[in-house]
Amino acid sequence: MRITWAETDAERGDVQELFSHVFTGIEDNAVPLVAYDYMYAPLIAQIRDDGDRLVAAAMTCRTQVAAGSVLASRQGLPDRLGVLPLIDKHSELDLLAVDDSHRGLGYGSALLDHLESALAARGVRAWFGNVTVNLDAVSLRMFYRRHGFTVLPDFEPLPPLLGRKWHGPNLAAPQFWFYKRPGAGPRVPVDAA
């Protein structure tokens, strides 16, 4: 299995298509175009089969709150949420999908490991995500725990990480949140600053 980065709009279109196939109700622009990398700083890992068909992908990036702060700062507006000093110290595991025909082969684990290594090398100190109520929460809870994430109880809010809240109050409550410090090993708390 070879993991590469989705660095072109065409590759990201394939990733968007996979995510749309696996998840119901996903936004048409869930995967940012290259032109918006300055806002989201995405890492999009992909695995293709021998015929170059995308079979698995994962994306981690800045949160909407952080992307909004970046955009506001480019327009000369103040950082009201105070996230810009920590903009590159956090990342949200936004989406991870494996095509049905390739599940159970370790692709999801390989993508997580690949992303974690890249995030640790970048100096990211808080990596987090959530599982929504329409997904298989039981197996996903075990999956993220197995990868060293602290997994919160159902419907418990994400605590401040790095001393900041990374989601606005309008976010619908997910089934559960998970978080970790990349490269720090299993269940190491994310520091306050």
UniProtKB/TrEMBL annotation:
- The species this protein was found in: Nocardioides soli
* Coiled-coil ranges from the UniProt annotation: none
Q: Ranges for the N-acetyltransferase domain?
A: 31-168
Is Membrane one of the keywords UniProt gives this record?
Answer: no
- Molecular-function annotations in GO: acyltransferase activity, transferring groups other than amino-acyl groups
- Keyword field: Transferase
Tree of life domain? Bacteria
The name this protein goes by in its record: GNAT superfamily N-acetyltransferase
SUPFAM superfamilies according to UniProt? Acyl-CoA N-acyltransferases (Nat) (SSF55729)
Q: What Pfam families does the annotation carry?
A: Acetyltransf_7 (PF13508)
List membrane-spanning regions.
none
Does the UniProt entry include the keyword Transferase?
A: yes
